[in-house]
Design brief:
The strands form 2 sheets. Strands 4-5-3-6-7 form a 5-stranded parallel beta sheet. By secondary structure, the chain is α/β, with parallel strands linked by helices. It contains 8 helices and 7 strands; from the N terminus they run E-E-E-H-E-H-H-E-H-E-H-H-H-E-H. Strand 1 and strand 2 form a beta hairpin. Helix 1 packs across helix 8 and helix 2 packs antiparallel against helix 3.
Length: 201
């Protein structure tokens, strides 16, 4: 059942937008959890590959794809933050060893914080074996054409795991609204339900 706007999300007659950063390694289930969360709330999903897939046919995974993707994301975040919509879910692979990723998260949160939005961090983690299974799911392959070469995407998953730290250390995320879930043995529906209840979405 979808959320109904009520006085708890209204301040001074203005709707307080919610921004959910849903992050974790590749194929951990971020997009699928995000989709399920949209079914039980009025949140909208903007998964990270929406922008990547738009520019990849022209520039591959080169620097121009990432530059244009980041420009598009920022424009969408700013427009959404200034809208009267309920809230946005954005999925992200956060390299905790990369300062550029920390900067991106900070800048993105600042866009929403500037309008008084409520911000929530949800971190997913899962066993490698389960992630390799999820890397082949029909929904993932339908939504992310660049993942359809299974051998290549598996190699990228394994290589990225070896070269970057894709989950936080305990205490590294300093946020009031922060939830970490090991979803190895949980369905996307179960995870979405837990997020909804935890943050009263």
């Amino acid at each position: 059942m979808k959320a109904v706007l009520d006085p708890r999300i209204i301040q001074r007659g203005v709707i307080v937008i919610k921004f959910i950063l849903l992050f974790g390694p590749q194929a951990v289930g971020k997009m699928t959890v995000g989709r399920e969360l949209t079914k039980v709330t009025d949140l909208k999903l903007f998964h990270n590959h929406m922008s990547i897939e738009l520019f990849h046919p022209f520039f591959g995974f080169g620097s121009e794809t990432w530059r244009l993707s980041n420009l598009l994301r920022r424009e969408l975040f700013e427009s959404f933050a200034n809208s009267n919509q309920y809230g946005l879910i954005f999925t992200y692979v956060w390299g905790f060893d990369l300062q550029s990723d920390w900067d991106f998260v900070k800048q993105t949160c600042e866009i929403f914080e500037s309008v008084g939005a409520d911000i929530y961090f949800v971190e997913l983690e899962s066993d490698l074996e389960e992630r390799l299974k999820r890397n082949k799911t029909p929904y993932r392959l339908d939504q992310k054409p660049t993942k359809r070469n299974i051998e290549q995407s598996e190699q990228d998953l394994l290589r990225t795991m070896e070269t970057h730290r894709l989950n936080s250390h305990p205490g590294e995320i300093v946020r009031d609204n922060y939830l970490r879930i090991n979803n190895t043995d949980l369905s996307a529906e179960e995870v979405a339900s837990r997020i909804k209840v935890e943050f009263d979405l």
